[in-house]
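Any chance you could type out some protein's one-letter sequence along with its backbone structure tokens so I can compare the two?
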Amino acid sequence: MKKGLIVASTLVIMSASAVAGNVGCGLGNMVIKNQNSTLMQILAVTTNGTSGNQTFGITSGTMGCSKPSKMVSNKVESFVADNMDALALDISNGQGTTLNTLASLLKVKDTVAFGKKLQSNFSSIYTSSKVSSAQVIDSVIVLGS
């Protein structure tokens, strides 16, 4: 029993130090205003985590959360994952059907400039042969802004 209490206490202290001063957004952050102590921050974080509202708040821009300015749809994620090689070829050329489709999914207006910008930054998008589709999307979003 004592070992379990010690382990639980250690985990609470470690998690509190990881989020000290910033518990994020969500119900816990809205309800628990005085977060000057570790205990109050733990309560706020726990409320956010157990109520499952933080994800909703982030995606909807509610509950004190800011909606990310560049969110991609599942279509973009699937498209890039399914077309990594063809997209790499098109980006290296600065044009192509796969690149145009990605630009359309991302609602890019100037596809020519988009293609040229990605082409000139190819090595920072496809950093290795093991780059993930999520990393490619992140790089494209940053460069395409």
